[in-house]
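Regression test case RT-17, inverse folding.

Input:
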C-alpha cells in the first residue's frame, strides 16, 4: 500500500501530494486523515494522509516509507478532510493551509503536552489489622488508608486538601506494598466551561413552540435551512437548546457559533446547566493546553455540544445534527487572514455534506441572509415578541447639536446624566456603548492641523491613559509612543486632544457617580486570560452597577437588572467610508438597545446623535428591522451594491509604495488581457480601478489595490476564480498579494 501525503508546508511549490510506502506495522490501520511523520529531503516532517492506493508510478527505490503515526487515531475526520479540499479550491490556498484549520495549533510540530496527575489506589482491600500494620504509629497513614478504602484511585491533589503533605507517607505505603502511586491523564477544563448548577426547562412561549414545530421536521431530516429572526429578548437561545436536545436524543451532536468571545462564557454556562459535561468550548482565548484538551474531548465523542467563536465551525464532531450561527449578521464570522473564509458559508457546506440542519439567527439579520429568506433560499422563522410579553425598551433620541448650543461640551447629554443618576439610585444597572477605545480618538496640532500618526500605519494614533502614564497607541499594529510635547510635523507646542473613547466615558461616569463601581470592556481590559468572563461576572453579580464598553457589549448579553442603555456617539459607525456603514449602524444600535429591560423592570434607551433625523437612526429608535431592510435593499439595488453585485479586490503589500504600485498596475494589465479574451466577463465589470486604499500604509507595509465591482453572475464567479489565480502568481521579493471577495473592509 502507498499513502498520498500532504506535507505541512504551505507553499505553492509543494502544494501536491507525495507518495510514501505504508510499512507493514501500519498496514490495514492507516487511513485518510491520519497525521504522520515522513522523510522529506534531509529532514523529517509532519503530514496528513490524503488517500491510499495499491499502486504507485514512482520507481520502488525512490519511495520512502512513512516513519510513524503521530496519534493512535485519524486526527481529521473524512468530512473535514473533504472540507479542507473544498476550501483550498474556494480560497485558492494551498491544501496544507486549509488542513491546518482542522487542527489545534498545539498539535502541529508535536508541541503537545498531555497533563497528568498523580493518583493513589490500594492494591487490595485491607482488613482493620492490615491497615493498622501498614499505618503503624502514623496518623497521616491511617487517615490516608481510610480515605482510600473504596478502592478507587484518588488524586494526590485532592488528598492534599484533607491531609497536609500526603506524598511522603503515600510513598512509604507504596514501598510497603499497600498501595500504588501512578500517573494518569487529566483534562484541562477552561474556566468558562466549569460545571454549572442544573436548571429546569422554562415554559416555552407560544411563538417558541410554533417556531420549533416549524423547524423540527426538516431539522430531523437534516435538510432544514432556517433564518430565525426574533426581536431582542424573544428567547432564541431556548429554541437553540431544544433543537440541540433533539439532536442528542438522536445520537447526533451540535455546534453553536457565537460572534464574540465575550458571549462564550454566558452561553456555555447556560448549556452546561442544561446538558452537563457534554458541552465543550473552543475559542482563541483558551490556553494551548485547554484548547487541545477540548478538541480531544470533541474528537473522542465525550463532548457532543460545541460552543465557540468562528473557528469552532471546524470542530472534529462526528454526526452533527445542527449547526447554529447566533448573531449571524456579525462581521467577525469573516476571517480577514489567509485563507480568508466566511464561517457561515463553511457551516452551510458542512450541513449539506453531513446531513445537518443550519440555523442562522439574529434580531437584525444581515441584508444578505434576509434577502435569501425572502427569495426562498432560507426558511424564515419569526419570534416577534419578547418572552412573557415584556415590552421593548422605550428609546429616546438626543440631539447633541442642541446640547452643544446650550454649552454642554461633555460626553453626556443632560438626559443621559439624569437617567444614570436615577437608575443607579434605584439600585438598577446601566450599560454605556462607546465604540472607540482609549481616552481620545486622536491628537492633532492646532497650528498645522496634522494628526499624530503611527509610523508603521497610515492611521491616527489614539490617546490612552495607562497606569497613570499618558501614551499614544495604534489600534492596528499595537505601536506605542509617548504623547509628544511639540508637533512632529511643524514643531508647534499647540497640541490638542480630539474625540472620545471608553476611558473618557468611564472617567466621566466616576465623576458623575462617585462611589459607584464601573467596569470597562474593550480590547485593552480583556486581553488577559478569562478577561471577558471576569468583567462580566463582576457586572452580573452586582458588584458593579455600570458597564462601559465597545461593540462587544452590544449583542447577546443578558442582564435582567439592566434598565438603562446609553449610546454615547451613535454616528461613529454611520460615517465610515463603507457601503455597509448604514447596516452596521442599525444593527449596533438595535442590538445594544435590546440589552435594556430584559428582566421584570422596563427598559429605557438614550441614543445621543448629531443626526437624529437620519433614516437609519430613526429606524433603530423604532427597532423596525423590516422598514430598514426595505429601504436599504432598495438603496443597494439602485447603487449596485451587494447582494446585487460582488465587491472584490487584489490587495498588494510591499516594502515601498513604488513596488506596490508597480505590481498592482501590472495586475491590472493582466486583468485587462483576461477581459479582452473573455468578453462575457467584461460585460459583468461595473468598476475596475487601481489606486491606494484609504489606509495607504499598514503594519509597515505600503498598500495598493485593484478594485472591482461586478454584476453578480456565474461569469463574475469565473472572473473571481481567475483573479484568485492572479493573486497567487510569484511576486518579487517583499511583495505579497491577496484576493478578497466581498471583504470586511475596503480601507
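Golden output:
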Amino acid at each position: 500500500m502507498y499513502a498520498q501525503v500532504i506535507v505541512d508546508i504551505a507553499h505553492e511549490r509543494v502544494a501536491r501530494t507525495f507518495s510514501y510506502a505504508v510499512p507493514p506495522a501500519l498496514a490495514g490501520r492507516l487511513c485518510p486523515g491520519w497525521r504522520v511523520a515522513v522523510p522529506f529531503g534531509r529532514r523529517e516532517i509532519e503530514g496528513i494522509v490524503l488517500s491510499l492506493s495499491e499502486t504507485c508510478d514512482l520507481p520502488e527505490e525512490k519511495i520512502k516509507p512513512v516513519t510513524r503515526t503521530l496519534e493512535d487515531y485519524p486526527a481529521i475526520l473524512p468530512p473535514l478532510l473533504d472540507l479542507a479540499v473544498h476550501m483550498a479550491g474556494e480560497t485558492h490556498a494551498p491544501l496544507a493551509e486549509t488542513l491546518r484549520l482542522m487542527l489545534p495549533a498545539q498539535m502541529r510540530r508535536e508541541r503537545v503536552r498531555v497533563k497528568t496527575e498523580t493518583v493513589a489506589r490500594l492494591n487490595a482491600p485491607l482488613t482493620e489489622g492490615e491497615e493498622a500494620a501498614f499505618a503503624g504509629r502514623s496518623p497521616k497513614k491511617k487517615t490516608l488508608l481510610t480515605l482510600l478504602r473504596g478502592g478507587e484511585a484518588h488524586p494526590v491533589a485532592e488528598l492534599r486538601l484533607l491531609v497536609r503533605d500526603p506524598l511522603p507517607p503515600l510513598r512509604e505505603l507504596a514501598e510497603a506494598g499497600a498501595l500504588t502511586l501512578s500517573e494518569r491523564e487529566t483534562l484541562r477544563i477552561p474556566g468558562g466551561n466549569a460545571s454549572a448548577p442544573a436548571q429546569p426547562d422554562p415554559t416555552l412561549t407560544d411563538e417558541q413552540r410554533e417556531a420549533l414545530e416549524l423547524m423540527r421536521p426538516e431539522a430531523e431530516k437534516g435538510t432544514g435551512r432556517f433564518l430565525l429572526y426574533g426581536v431582542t429578548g424573544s428567547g432564541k437561545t431556548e429554541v437553540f437548546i431544544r433543537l440541540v436536545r433533539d439532536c442528542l436524543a438522536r445520537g447526533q451532536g451540535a455546534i453553536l457559533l457565537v460572534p464574540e468571545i465575550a458571549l462564550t462564557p454566558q452561553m456555555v454556562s447556560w448549556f452546561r446547566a442544561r446538558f452537563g459535561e457534554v458541552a465543550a468550548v473552543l475559542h482563541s482565548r483558551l490556553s494551548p493546553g485547554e484548547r487541545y484538551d477540548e478538541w480531544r474531548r470533541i474528537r473522542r465523542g465525550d463532548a457532543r455540544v460545541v460552543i465557540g467563536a468562528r473557528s469552532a465551525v471546524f470542530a472534529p464532531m462526528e454526526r452533527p445534527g445542527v449547526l447554529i450561527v447566533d448573531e449571524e449578521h456579525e462581521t467577525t464570522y469573516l476571517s480577514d487572514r489567509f485563507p480568508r473564509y466566511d464561517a457561515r458559508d463553511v457551516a452551510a457546506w458542512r450541513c449539506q455534506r453531513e446531513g445537518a440542519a443550519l440555523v442562522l439567527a439574529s434580531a437584525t439579520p444581515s441584508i444578505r441572509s434576509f434577502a435569501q429568506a425572502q427569495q426562498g433560499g432560507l426558511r424564515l422563522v419569526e419570534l416577534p415578541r419578547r418572552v412573557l410579553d415584556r415590552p421593548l425598551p422605550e428609546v429616546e433620541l438626543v440631539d447633541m447639536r442642541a446640547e452643544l448650543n446650550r454649552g454642554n461640551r461633555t460626553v453626556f447629554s443632560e438626559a443621559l446624566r439624569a437617567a444614570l443618576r436615577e437608575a443607579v439610585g434605584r439600585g438598577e444597572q446601566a450599560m454605556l456603548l462607546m465604540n472607540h477605545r482609549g481616552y481620545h480618538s486622536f491628537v492633532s496640532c492646532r497650528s498645522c492641523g496634522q494628526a499624530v500618526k503611527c509610523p508603521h500605519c497610515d492611521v491616527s494614533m489614539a490617546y490612552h491613559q495607562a497606569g497613570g502614564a499618558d501614551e499614544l497607541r495604534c489600534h492596528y499594529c499595537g505601536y506605542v509612543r509617548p504623547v509628544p510635547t511639540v508637533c512632529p510635523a511643524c514643531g508647534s507646542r499647540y497640541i490638542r486632544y480630539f474625540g472620545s473613547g471608553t476611558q473618557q466615558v468611564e472617567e466621566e461616569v466616576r465623576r458623575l457617580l462617585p462611589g459607584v463601581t464601573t467596569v470597562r470592556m474593550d480590547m485593552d481590559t480583556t486581553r488577559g486570560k478569562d478577561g471577558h468572563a471576569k468583567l462580566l461576572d463582576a457586572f452580573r453579580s452586582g458588584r458593579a452597577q455600570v458597564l462601559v464598553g465597545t461593540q462587544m457589549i452590544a449583542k447577546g448579553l443578558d442582564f435582567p437588572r439592566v434598565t438603562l442603555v446609553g449610546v454615547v456617539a451613535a454616528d461613529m459607525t454611520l460615517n465610515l467610508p463603507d457601503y455597509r456603514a448604514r447596516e452596521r449602524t442599525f444593527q449596533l444600535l438595535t442590538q445594544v438597545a435590546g440589552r435594556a429591560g430584559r428582566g421584570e423592570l422596563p427598559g429605557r434607551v438614550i441614543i445621543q446623535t448629531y443626526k437624529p433625523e437620519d433614516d437609519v437612526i430613526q429606524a433603530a429608535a423604532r427597532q423596525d428591522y423590516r422598514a430598514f431592510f426595505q429601504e436599504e435593499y432598495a438603496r443597494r439595488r439602485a447603487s449596485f451594491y451587494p447582494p446585487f453585485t460582488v465587491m472584490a479586490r487584489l490587495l498588494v503589500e510591499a516594502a515601498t509604495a513604488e513596488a506596490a504600485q508597480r505590481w498592482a498596475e501590472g495586475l491590472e494589465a493582466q486583468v485587462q488581457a483576461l477581459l479582452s479574451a473573455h468578453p462575457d466577463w467584461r460585460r459583468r465589470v461595473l468598476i475596475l480601478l487601481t489606486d491606494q486604499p484609504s489606509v495607504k500604509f499598514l503594519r509597515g507595509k505600503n498598500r495598493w489595490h485593484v478594485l472591482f465591482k461586478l454584476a453578480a453572475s456565474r461569469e463574475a464567479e469565473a472572473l473571481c476564480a481567475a483573479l484568485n489565480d492572479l493573486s497567487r502568481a510569484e511576486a518579487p521579493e517583499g511583495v505579497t498579494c491577496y484576493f478578497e471577495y466581498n471583504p470586511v473592509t475596503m480601507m
